Amino acid sequence: MVEIVIKYGGNPNHINKDRDTPLSIAANKGDRDTIDALLRAGANLRAAVVKLTSSLRYVSKKQLRESTQAGFSVKPLAILLAGDVYLKCRDPIKAAFDVCKEINRIKDVRDEFTIEFEQLIKDADTFAYKFLNHCDSMFEARSVLTSSTNLLRTATDQNKKTFVSHPFSQQIVNERWYGETANKLFCGKTVIALKYLSSPIALPLLFLKFLSIDMCRCVPFMESTFSNLMRLLFTPCLCFATDAINYLVFQAVLISCCLIPFKAGTFEINPIEYVLYYCVFARILINVDQMIQHGCRQYFRNFWNYLEVAIVLLLVAAAGYKGFIQYVVDEWTKLFGKEKEKDNSGNITSFDSLETILMNQHRNSMDVNYIYAVTEFILTLRLLSLLEISQSLGTMLIALKHLIADVIKFGVILLTVILGTSVSIYSMTIALNEWNAELTDIAKDYDWPEGYPKKLPDLRDEKNKIEIPNVFKTFPATMRNILWGTFGLLDVVNLKIEKEPQTTDFINVMMILYILLSCVLLLNMLIGILSSTFEHVKDNCDIEWKFARSERLKEYRRAQPFLFPFFPILFPFIALFRAMLRDETKKQHEKEANLKQEGDRDELISTVCDRFKFGNMMGSSDDDETRMKFRKEKSVLTQIAAKVKGKKPH
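RE: above sequence
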């Protein structure tokens, strides 16, 4: 019945007033035959998944309460996604990725369905990997992956590490990473290096050539020498080399600022600091450009970008602080750096403030040096990210990132325990301070008689007051010393309070509880977590490194290709080329869409789908005759694929 309706113009993606689609209605009824017929007719699987999970896509507590009262069942979704549902879609891998994306959005809304949702995501990921595994050649894999939707980039964005680490995916990653520089001999690489080094000078000249000569000859922009040079410079491996050189220059300039001392009596910005601020401006421009290109969410998915933001913020703060202090110090010197004032008798009534100003300059310059030193340390850590491209060092850095994340989580728990212990102990300090203040007031206001009992302490004597240990005199000092106590750097003798044995016992009990909780439990838990994380990364080191390299490709795709001195100047050329390249890519996608209508890619995907089905059937069949039959059918499919490629079958 469904086939007849569709044959006479029925729309398999029709949406009614309740936002239901034929596919979602069939899934709610559990009609497997109707689901298969609709998928073969081109029904949108993603729209059906969105409708079946719409009760969990709330925007307010009221809608969440209504969806909870209405109830949600994962059964229709499981029926819809059961079996070989993805094979019936026009683009199976894209359909699997779309389903994963939609389920990930609502996976954590209802905890009772988390396991079922994770299983559906796992099934979709397994199917995508197996489907790619059934491609017989790199040509087929490239045709499947490099469509207008760019499935490889989608897999990287959705954190599908196993799919990205597939040999076919990695070969495409290598091709895109090296671009025109791949498989070049020494002479070819030398020519590319010369073009790269001369590009800051040649690029404006080639652009003027395009405006004056190429446009008169009606040469397309994407075929001009300017475009060819820009396309070469946008090769990810060259952008990576440029970024590495920029970081090294940045590091050298910052180290120079740390090592060159400030001149006594002045707080002026030296020439190296001007170079440093120019580098900071270039880094800001580069990072803003990356945010625009990839989006803030994708930008902050990279752990190393947090360090990048910290570096920029620290140096901007140092520049603003130094400029403000320099202006204030100059004004103070003009106003107060004069002769000392004297009275009529010739005595000095006020000291010259110049000495005070010099001391303030020293402190301010030290504050800036502190910021430079911390920034230099963070920048050194940021330089480690460049080593991820190496397989031997990259796995260690990936493990380091995971371990740092675990340490941060542990630090939050430890800080909470330290805070609670500090409040408990410092509350005793506050009580003792109040008692000392009360005793002082009594000693001042009360007129002691001559026959004052000698057994009681003389409250007028400061020695008889309760002396509080220095480690607990202030709340920050209490937290700091308790933290050092975690590592055994707090002397127990310093915890004793004279004339207050009960308070001393209370503090000792609290410290014992803290040591048991932090050292015995939390630190051992941290060791276990770090060991588990390291073993996980070690077992999946190859997959983790390949995925990290794919993320690096996405980061340096169409990134900045110029060194610090030239990038801010040549940035308009980069923006112009990106705009033209975007238009060209759009036209290319439209051209690919026309090729799809001719059926080349669809026929190839259909061939791989049949091969996938036959492969599963052969894996479950024990009959030799059946196996021979499947092998003959597979040879026929291979001949069909060869015709699609335009080659003779082997």
